[in-house]
Amino acid sequence: MYIVMIGPPGSGKGTQSERLVQEFDLPHLSTGEVLREAMREETQLGRAATKYMESGQLVPDELVFNIVRERLQEVDCRDGVLLDGFPRNVHQADLLQAFLDERGTPLDLAVALEVDRDELIRRMLARHRPDDTPETIAQRLEVYHAETAPVLDYYRRRDLLLTVNGMQSPDEVYRDILEGIESFRRQRAGERR
Ligand code: B4P
Q1: Which of 6, 21, 59, 116 is the pocket-test mutation for ligand 1 (most atoms within 8 Å of CB)?
Q2: Which residue of 55, 83, 142, 192 shows the fewest CB atoms closer than 10 Å?
Q3: Would the CB of 64 count as within 6 Å of ligand 1?
Q4: Is the CB of 151 within 6 Å of ligand 1?
Q5: Distance from chain centroid for Cα 149
Q6: Does any ligand 1 atom lie closer than 6 A to the CB of residue 7?
Q7: Which atom from ligand 1 is nearest to the alpha carbon of 86?
Q8: Which atom of ligand 1 approaches the CA of 87 most closely?
Q9: What's the farthest any 2 CA atoms get from each other in the chain?
């Protein structure tokens, strides 16, 4: 199963992804986590990403897609993967679709978490990450609305979007995601009959 997790910063993509990869035994690729590790290790990628992450901007598409493409080419990703925080704009969505279509493993589902602005800010300020200062948070929320929100329509038009209320407890959000996945699967199976 090929799944992408979309949502504003702090919406719980990472939290829910951890559970889903266990449940479905999928490789987990969090582009944010790979970038943060590269920054910690001061690799070339990390140095290139720092100024974008620290100012709440998206890291350039070429850099992020290189991470994704290389990971998808690894043998454990032949049957599926969970992409956490990718794609974050329509260009990234196009790059992913072209890559997956070309090798005949199309995306199964895009899970979108919906959370109010005030709650997002509360969660991010509570977790003390270096890119969670009030100024950076405001910038990241702006970037989300301008660049990432259109990705929801991109997947809605392709009948791949599952929207979930992320304002509930982590257990309730997870339950809704599982139910949504199940009903998507039933719908697909019905279409094939
Ligand atoms: P990410 O690492 O993707 O992080 P995020 O969007 O800030 O957080 P996430 O939604 O995963 O929230 P979490 O589960 O931690 O991105 C960081 C940066 O990397 C981006 O700003 C960008 O610069 C760069 N980047 C990443 N991908 C990119 C791409 N494709 N293109 C370009 N740039 C890219 O949850 C947040 C907090 O809430 C946690 O403390 C959690 O415990 C808590 N929480 C979670 N669910 C909850 C719930 N239901 N109730 C209460 N609290 C909850």
Answers
A1: 59
A2: 192
A3: yes
A4: no
A5: 12
A6: yes
A7: 30
A8: 30
A9: 52
Q: What pTM does this model have? A: 0.94
Kindly give the distance from the C-alpha atom of residue 124 to the centroid of ligand 1, in angstroms, as a whole number. Answer: 8
Q: What is the distance in A from the centroid of ligand 1 to the CA of 84? A: 9
Quote the ligand 1 centre to 188 CA distance (angstroms): 30
Q: Tens place of pLDDT for every residue, the chain, 193 residues?
A: 999 999 999 999 999 999 999 999 999 999 999 999 999 999 999 999 999 999 999 999 999 999 999 999 999 999 999 999 999 999 999 999 999 999 999 999 999 999 999 999 999 999 999 899 999 999 999 999 999 999 999 999 999 999 999 999 999 999 999 999 999 999 988 887 7
Distance 138 CA to ligand 1 centre (A): 14
Dist CA 145 CA 142 (whole Å): 5
- Give the C-alpha distances (Å, rounded to integers) separating 155 from 68, 69, 85, 160, 192: 19, 20, 15, 5, 20
The sign of the torsion formed by the CA atoms of 43, 82, 115, 119 equals: negative
Q: How many residues make up the chain in this entry?
A: 193
Contact 10, 124 (CB under 8 A): yes
Give the span between the Cα atoms of 105 and 26, in whole angstroms.
Answer: 15
What is the residue whose two structure tokens read 């791949």?
160
58: left (phi over 0), alpha (psi -120 to 50) or beta: beta
